Description:
alpha/beta; four-stranded mixed β-sheet
Amino acid sequence: MRKIFLKVVxxxxxxxxxxxxxxxxxxxxxxxxVYIGGHGGPGYEEWWRQLVTEFxxxxxxxxxxxxxxxxxxxxxxxxxxxxxxxxxxALADLGGWVPAFADKGWLEPLEKYLATxxxxxxxxxxxxxxxxxxxxxxxxxxxxxxxxxxxHKELFKKAGLxxxxxxxxxxxxxxxxxxxxDPKKGIxxxxxxxxxxxxxxxGYMIFxxxxxxxxxxxxxxxxAFNSPEGLEALKFYTELYTKYHVSPPGTPxxxxxxxxxxxxxxxxxxxxxxxxxxxxxxMENPAIKGKYATAAHPYKVHPATVYGGWxxxxxxxxxxxxxxxxxxxxxxxxxxxxxxxxxxxxxxxxRIDVVFDVPFFLEDPLWKPIITMFPHAVARPPIPQWPQxxxxxxxxxxNVLTGKMTPEQALSWAAKEVNKILAGGx
Length: 426
């Protein structure tokens, strides 16, 4: 009886120990919170669920994820960082978010992970600038895009222009825009972005870099656009409206978003756009499908454009940084990206190998100019003061468009304001 009793006690203790061990095993399974800016919509929710399930099963890491609309994403992400409760990993816009967050101490440096990641050498080289702050990389580019010339092929034909030969230079741009403009019919040749919007800054940058200039000095400490090239770009860009009248009367309050709608209805022949324009212009007017095209934006000295997109970042406050990195490496892997690109026909991966292994990007007539132009694409300066600098550029352009300043006056004023901002002033 004593032996039986001891065996029962031993078995009971073993069961208790096993039951106690289960929670500890579960407690060792990390769980990360992921913020995804946009990238929702029909079909995408199920796609994200599939990817999350695949990741969880592969790595033994639980994932809680939130898909947040673009229009509120910045506010929600910043609020989470400021409250000290950020997601472990999140998407950050390539338009200045990463350096701004790094400057506040919110992000984890990623150099130790990138040093051994096979994908690092496959990222488009020009993308790294946007995620680098003081020589350290704080983000991994995920997808990208760049701005190109969007034009209405039917309007070209009606004006006697060959839609297979879009303008390549500034002179050709002006010549085409004049022929395409018919104020009596409310049709204009080219849409100049002039509103107080980041889009206006990007428009000026395309002309500036296309003229052989640059926005800031290489160390980002001073304005560089107060140059002959900067003045030439500002004059030509604004004179499309003020002198040649090939941009519509509402130009000082318009951006490419307005021109996209106008193009959909045959009222603007050319404007700056990108891959995001394709579904939006066709939603505005399904009949325009097949009637618009893309091309490298016209330039004076050499091809130029500005890129955008998103990068993955890890919060400095994350308690599961290694798990967060595994999520980034998974989402930016060749396999996941290729499946994504083949399924959705976009966006453009930050990985060069995927872009050149998916025929769609190289063969589709709308995408081909974007891929061709991307090596010429520049970043918005990766500085925490970028929003203030961009606002000054917007005011510079708008002051010329509205006649408040001459191009010379506006350029001089803007350079002084930007230098004050970069020096730590207001």
